[in-house]
Amino acid sequence: MKHSEYVAYFKDIATRQPDLLHTDAVNRFARVIYSEWPTPTLQLSEFLALNKSGLNFPFMLCETWVRRTRAAGSEHLDHVFKGSFFIGDHLAEAKNYDQLEVLFDKTDRIASDIESYMLQEFEEHLNGDDQPKRNLIEGSFQLEHIGPFSGDKYGTRCEFQYSQSAGKWHVHDPDTWLPKP
Description:
Layout: H1 3-16, E1 29-35, E2 41-43, H2 45-53, E3 59-71, E4 77-90, H3 97-123, E5 134-136, E6 142-149, E7 153-165
Parallel strand pairs: 1-3
Antiparallel strand pairs: 1-2, 3-4, 4-7, 5-7, 6-7
């Protein structure tokens, strides 16, 4: 799965999930770039720009994926993707833990709804005609509460893993390389 397809997948979820209903006019979706090298960093510029110009609540942040390749037989390679998304909201009254529990219940419910959708969608193999089958890795969904960040934002982060045949992405064509000296 190309990174642009991964982002489009989650943007589509954000436009159709009943609590989010992202549109260009009602911003509830942003991308976040996570990098593990050289040190773990999180680049939130798109989110911060939307936060200043009119981010609506609740919202989804789609984090970039991390991919590794593994051998899945003598002549077959799989890509294993680690992805994550965050469902956030704002806490109206700072340090009001009763409101915070209600907020976490809400973001947990939305994240769990998306998790259920993904499990069903991957199970039904709705991956497009030209896409290799994607498989969610059993037991890989993990939800955790995050916050505060960017002032009064809290929510639920969901991390998951899935595999997909490397297919045409891992076929080396020596004719495209320059010859050895």
